[in-house]
Structures are given as structure tokens and as C-alpha cells.
Amino acid sequence: MSTPFVRLPVLVLALVAAAACTGPEEDRRASIDDESQLLEVVNENRRLEAELAESERRLVEDCLEEQGFPVHDQVELATRWHVAEQEALVEDYPFASFLPDPEAAAEWGYGQWAYSGEGWASGAGDAFNEATGADQPWLDLDNTAFDDLALEEKRAWYAAFGGEEYAASIGAFSSGAMADDDSTEGGDDGAIVIDPELQEAVAPGGCLLEMVEAVHGEAEAVPATGGAVGTVWTWGPRSPQEAADWEALREAYREAVIEPEAAFLECVAAGGWGDWEFDRTGGLPVAAYFNQIYYPDSEIITVQDGLVVEPGSVPEPPDDLPSDLESQQAYEIDMALGFIDCAETTGYREAAEAAYHRVHLDLFLTMDEELYAYQDDLRGVIAAAQDVLGG
Questions:
Q1: How far is the C-alpha of 259 from the C-alpha of 266, rounded, in Å?
Q2: In the chain, N or C: fewer CB atoms in 10 Å?
Q3: Lowest mean pLDDT among 14-18, 87-91, 141-145
Q4: Keywords for this entry (predicted)?
Q5: For 116, phi and psi rounded to 5 degrees?
Q6: What are phi and psi of 220, to 5 degrees?
Q7: Model confidence over 86-139: pLDDT tens digits?
Q8: 307 strand-pairing partners
Q9: In terms of Cα–Cα distance, which of 185, 191, 145 is closest to 298?
Q10: Within 13 Å, how many C-alpha atoms sit on residue 123's CB side?
Q11: What does the longest C-alpha to C-alpha distance in the chain come to?
Q12: 307-308 and 231-234 beta bridge pairing
């Protein structure tokens, strides 16, 4: 990089010393510089992670091709090894799921109706993805060659990629689906269930394990972080962000927004949108709410932030809500706009955004040394991966 990094403790001390002789505008500018420097460090780590991801992917693809699999699932590879730079220290806020962009909300609401059976059949789901999925580059991938493979060929690819257990964990390759290519997920009673046990990740196998052993030595099962529960498998250098105390961050955030949250919920209830309660992360399970509307005869277990949403924690929809999709879509749009209006008029959104940003900045300022050490670790592993590729 053209500009050398400034160690954050030095920068912070300088800012504190300068505060006594600067006015409000200078203080604000110093704070922005501090955060910009921190973001640059984080993004240097992202760039190194992307370089390592590309090497890992190449090793896995080489392994698959040596076993006779020249056609790959580009979506699987892209989603597993997608690394993007951050535009800000905080990119996802707890309210993102229930306070959509106002312009998008006016057309789509929360987009839940587009994923209903009728909505999806009409093409609304694809249109919603296209309209709102700009940050998901895999949606534009040409995966035609893999999609055209027979189900058994796809299953063989997944088994070679991640192992037999991984292939079996994918719904399309369950015993029922393998017996009938036209079968759908779910039981005979029409239940659509997201199994909470799927939170326990499958140990890497196949070419994925071969890459891990060649570059990193071994994989390790660790508790999930960032709000999720269960076990995940990890390998290689562990990001300080991943190892951070996110539970403490969530607690600090929720403590800071007690009054704004209460005012927002009162506004929502007064608007006729039901009696809601925030979950432990500060979110509202709107997806579980609309599942009651679009799948009234199905049992659906919704997992949000790693936890199963209990049916009793979600308000019931109005009894007089019409059953046709057009009316339900209108209701969803009205509700999304109503939530947005309450967030603005009560000051909830502004307060929540400021509090969440503040606790993140405080957290990052405690891990500066770890962030730089992580860069060194990444460079060492990248060199090892390049040696394997060159060998």
C-alpha cells in the first residue's frame, strides 16, 4: 500500500492530546480520521483473505479435476470463497431485517410475498433478488453447465468436493430426492421445516479436506460466533473480528437503546401492527411473522441469528386479512412502510444506528495489535498455499 499504517494506540493518544486545543469541528474530523485508519487496516486484511481464498479455491478445483470433475458448481465455490472489502466498520445493523430501504419497501415490502408459492411461480422471487441482491455477485454467475448435470452427477461432485457426509447434508440429495428427481423437500403433510440440527456443521472431507491439510494442517470444530449457535469448522488464521466478544457487544448495544426500542414498539402497536418484542440481538422476526400468512397450513421452523424463533414470540396476523396474494402483498408493503415511519418519528433508527456504530468502534479499537498480527499470519499462509500450488 502507498501509505504506511499508523499504529492505532499512537493515533489515539495523539487525538486525546490534541482534543484540549481543538474546537468541535476539529474533534469531529479527528474522529473520522481515526475510523478511516481503522477501516483501512480491516480492508487490508480483507484483501489478504481474498488472496488466500483464491489460492484455496484453485487447489480444490485442481483436486476435483484430477478426479474427473471438470464442471463445477460455481455458486458453491463463489459463496464459500467470496471476500469483499468493507465500505464501513458497520455494514449490517440489527434493524436491517425489519427496516428495509424505503424505496424498496414501497415496491416489495420485505420481499416475503415474492417467496410465497404463488409469488415465486410468477417470477417475483427472481425479480426481487435481482432488484435487491447487488451485494451477491453469485446471482449473476453462469452455472448452466452444472445445472444441466444429472442429479447423481451433482451428488458425486459434492461428495468429491466436501465428502459423503457433506453431500448427504444437502436437501436435494436426501434419500427421497435421490429416489425421485421431481420430489420436493418436506414431509407428506406439507410441512416445510428448517431443521435446527443443521446448525451443527459437517466436518470437511473430500477435496476440501485435502486442501485444508495441505495448507493449514488440520481443521478444528469451534463454537459458532456472531450471534449463531452450534458448531462450525474452521482452519487457518482466525480473524480477531471472529474471535471478538460479540455477546458483550450486543449487551452494550441493547443497554444503550432500551428507551428508543420501547418507543418504537409502542408506535408499531399503536399503528395496528401487533405487539412485538425484540430478540436478544435487537432484531424482530418479520420472516416468521409472514410465514404465518403465506404458509398458513404448514409447519415452519424459522431460525434467526442462530436461534429457533418460538411461535409464541411472534404476533398473529389480523384475522380479517384476505387470503389473496395481492391483498397480502399490499398489507406487507403497508407494514414495512409503517415500521419505517415509526423508526423515524420516534428517533429509534437514528439512536440505534449511532449506538451500534459506537460499540463497534469501541470494540475495534481494542483489537488493533491483533489485526496487524493477523496480517502477518495471513501472509505466511498465502506463501504456503502458493508453494503447494507451485509444487
A1: 11
A2: C
A3: 14-18
A4: Coiled coil, Signal
A5: -65, 165
A6: -130, 135
A7: 888 888 899 999 999 999 999 999 999 998 999 999 999 888 888 886 456 656
A8: 304
A9: 191
A10: 1
A11: 76
A12: unpaired
DSSP state of 271: T
Place of cell 502507498: 2
Residue 44 CA to residue 85 CA, distance in Å, equals 8
pLDDT in tens, 29-66: 333 347 888 899 999 999 999 999 999 999 999 999 99
Long-range contacts of 325-333 (CB under 8 A, 24+ apart): 325/113, 325/116, 325/118, 325/119, 328/113, 328/116, 328/293, 328/294, 329/109, 329/113, 329/119, 331/293, 332/109, 332/110, 332/112, 332/113, 332/290, 332/293, 333/105, 333/106, 333/107, 333/108, 333/109
Rounded CA-CA distance 186/193 in Å is 7
Please state, in angstroms and rounded to a whole number, the distance separating the CA atoms of residues 135 and 321. 34
Which whole number is the average pLDDT over 3-22?
32
